[in-house]
Amino acid sequence: MKASEKIKELKAKSADELKAQKIDLLKEQFNLRMQKGTGQLTQNHMFKNIRRDIARINTILSEKQKAGA
After folding, report:
1. Which of 20, 33, 41, 52 has the most CB atoms around it within 10 Å of its CB?
2. Predicted TM-score of the model (pTM)
3. Are 27 and 69 in contact (CB under 8 A)?
């Protein structure tokens, strides 16, 4: 999925849905860190993808907050 498609999909969601998705991504990021620490991680590129997705969600949440204020 392209970044522009992800952004459109995220903008269509409500703030509560975005916060829930952010929590899920943070849990996944933690799980990846644990796998890396134990030497079980085989997909190192997932760190970058999850970090960028979290940043996208944070950006959209701040845009929604500014638009609502």
Report:
1. 41
2. 0.88
3. no
Q: What is the dihedral of CA 57, 22, 16, 5, to 10 degrees?
A: 40
User: What letter represents residue 49's amino acid?
Assistant: N
Could you give the CA distance from residue 16 to residue 56 in angstroms, rounded to a whole number? 15
| Euclidean distance between CA atoms 40 and 62, whole angstroms | 35
CA dist 44 → 10, 49, 55, 56 (Å): 24, 10, 18, 20
What span, in angstroms and rounded, lies between the C-alpha atoms of 24 and 65? 21
Specify the length of the chain in residues.
69
The per-residue pLDDT for range 11-43, each reduced to its tens digit, is: 899 999 999 999 999 999 999 999 999 999 889
